[in-house]
Amino acid sequence: MSTSDWIRLITIPFFTGAIGWLINWTGLLMLFNPIRFHGFTVPGLYELSRLLPRKLQEIPGVMQGGVGWQGIIPARAAKMGSIAVDKAIAKIGTPSELFQEMEPDKIAEQMTVMFEPRVPQIVDKTMRREQPGLWANLPPRAKQALYERVQQQLPDIMRQITDEIGRHIDQLLDPKILVIDHFSRNPALVNKVFKDVGARELRLMVNFGFLFGFLFGIPVAVISHFVTYWWMLPLLGIIVGWSTNLLGMWVIFEPVEVTKIGPFRLHGLFLRRQNEVAEVYASIIADHVITMENFGDFLINGPRGDRTEQMLYEAMLPAIDRAAGPLRGVARVAVGAREYDTITEAFARESREHTMTPFQDADFGRQQSENIRKLFAARTKELPSKDFVEMLRSAIKEDEWMLYLHGGVMGLAGGLIHLGIFG
What we know:
The protein is mostly helical. Helix content is 79%, strand content 3%. It has 24 helices and four strands. The strands form two sheets. A two-stranded antiparallel sheet has the order 1-2. A two-stranded antiparallel sheet has the order 3-4. Strand 3 and strand 4 form a beta hairpin.
């Protein structure tokens, strides 16, 4: 062989190694970027795309009825939320368990602390609207006495509220809807889950691209030496590009269970780090997903918020009545039974929006999140390997073909480039 022939053959493994590295590096870019759809919509394309096979419908860009791209993972934010619940969160804790980990007694105490200073304002606002004349003529000392008596009722009322929430939390809270909605509104968070939990495996995947590409390049060089058709190298490039991605995914996630072959123990690289990954995953879930703020927001503004508001209303309804104490009868006669009932109902309605404020307190939420983190870490470590690996892989498994196709296309391009340079 001539010197140029030797150079052409020797450079093939290095070329396929570089292409393999580039395939996996750009593959990760495809997975995560951009977070939002970048491109433009085409009138009628969305309706036309409904006629395509399901897999083609789910290509980012096509699914928006436009030409462009969105990272595969952020495009599947809602799907990731559903899988996170089905494969992990639902198996880690029920809504009741999660609420108990937030320590309802401490929530009740915080509700009392935050609500107490607002009592004068709420009482004043209610009375000025419902009985302005009576309230204006009432001595300041009498008003202060009413404020204080209402405030004295608060610890019992707040405990009643948290007890009621705890008893009915399974009906008031749907973790699946909560997580899906939160991930859909925050696709960057889905990226964070993958990047933080699988940081080591993602780096290895890129490096494996060069290793596998180089190793595949050796038989490619041999075959292309003996089979001299010009199209052989581009064809083998497609196979190498496809196989590099396929093998990289397999090494990370397979085999799910420990498999022994002679002296070797085979186990997916991601699965070997289950305990370490569990801590990272638990921190993300406790800090960003299953939080006091998200709990409170769902209870009030979620699809079952009307039931929560009714429960809060019924809990606050007796507050004025109890505060009036032995003067209740006199007060009913003085203002009229119907007007008196109107005052208690107005106070209960006015109080509802203030009752749940501790759920929106970021500092208090961070303190309570530690229990959630510990629960998730402990239970995630105990998940069976199959459930653990599906926690991440299920979200992209149906879309892996896009990565393999991307690898094949780049392998073809690499083969053509090598052919153009070295002949």
